[in-house]
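User: hey, got a sec? need Phosphatidylglycerophosphate synthase folded
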Amino acid sequence: MPAWPDDLEGENQLLWNLPNILTLCRFVLIPVYLIVFGAGYIKLAFFVLLLAGLTDVLDGYIARKRKLVTPLGSMLDPLADKLMMITVFLSLVFSQMISWQAAMAMFLRDAGMIIGSAFFHFRGKKTVPANVLGKLTTVLYYVAILFIVFQLPYAHAYLWFVIIVSFVTTVIYILQFYVLNQRSLNAD
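Assistant: Yep! Here you go:
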């Protein structure tokens, strides 16, 4: 009988733990979202996005609570989040629910964070774990998407507010990254 992830030893246990499996589920939900959205079920697609958000909350909670935080999970978790958000914003721009300028701003920010994080990770630099500002930005984006999908008043103005907040959050992450790695250099 194959071993369940919790029964594995050493590195395999760190790779196949419940938080990492939930993160991988988020990757699977990306094409599910696209299929549902592409079929014209936009509100249902929003609930697929909410399900992805729920897996994000659960994997973080379980990883911290059960001390299952891994370098792989720390890298894959934000990647799954960013790829889901890029997918959502591209679907919204192609369906003309948001402007291409808003989508481009969000895409540039998220793509920059993905590329920057991967670049520094593979160069052996420490990465800044998700913090309350990043989580707040994600929640604000979900609210903005809710406003847009359900065509609520001021949805586009609110979206631009969230875009500005996300860039401020990115600058704070960059500063935290710099300080973290400077301390690491000074400690060596």
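Quick note: Residues 155-187 form the longest helix (33 residues). Let me know if you need anything else on Phosphatidylglycerophosphate synthase.
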